[in-house]
């Protein structure tokens, strides 16, 4: 179970990093995605 838990934790960390990067890109780039 330790390997599965580590995989889930890494997956969550990657998702959080992707969300942070997408928010930064959306703030810097023009809001074309919102439309």
Give the topology.
Elements: H1 2-28
Short description:
This protein is 77% helix and 0% strand.
Describe this structure in words.
With 35 residues, the chain is mainly α. Helices cover 77% and strands 0% of the residues. The model has no long low-confidence stretch (mean pLDDT 85).
| Alpha plus pi helix count | 1
Q: Helical proportion?
A: over 70%
Rg over CA atoms, rounded to whole Å, is: 14 Å
Mind summarizing the main beta sheet?
none
Strand residues, percent: under 5%
Quickly give the structural class.
Answer: mainly alpha
Overall pLDDT level: 85
Number of domains: 1
> What is the number of beta strands?
0
Keywords: Membrane, Transmembrane, Transmembrane helix
Search tags:
35 residues, mainly alpha
């Amino acid at each position: 179970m330790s390997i599965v838990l580590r995989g889930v934790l890494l997956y969550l960390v990657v998702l959080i990093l992707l969300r942070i990067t997408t928010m930064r890109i959306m703030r810097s780039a023009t809001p074309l995605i919102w439309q």
